Amino acid sequence: MLETEVYDCPYCGEAVEAILDLSGGDQTYIEDCPVCCRPITFVLQIHDGEWMLEVRSENE
Ligand SMILES: [Zn+2]
User: Fold this and answer.
1) How many domains does the chain have?
2) β-pairing, 50-56 with 15-21?
3) Which domain holds residue 35?
4) CA of 48 to the centre of ligand 1 (A)
5) Predicted pLDDT at 30
6) Amino acid 60: pLDDT
7) Which pLDDT belongs to residue 38?
8) What are the CB-based long-range contacts (under 8 Å, 24+) for 49-54?
9) What are 31-56's pLDDT values in tens digits?
10) Residue 55 C-alpha to ligand 1 middle, in angstroms?
11) How many angstroms is it from 15 CA to the middle of ligand 1?
């Protein structure tokens, strides 16, 4: 199951769309921002059909 979510890059502040694979359960992964190319940490948490995405910069 794929969902899309728009987040603000913690570095450059640009709104970027992420594609999330909810079938994988809770996950933490790093992807480079397509705008400023800096590594963003994504924390995806799924609980009782609700999901939440948190984005962090490398230093947080
Ligand atoms: Zn960025």
Assistant:
1) 1
2) unpaired
3) 2-56
4) 31
5) 95
6) 72
7) 97
8) 51/3, 51/20, 51/22, 53/5, 53/7, 53/18, 53/20
9) 999 999 999 999 999 998 899 999 99
10) 11
11) 8
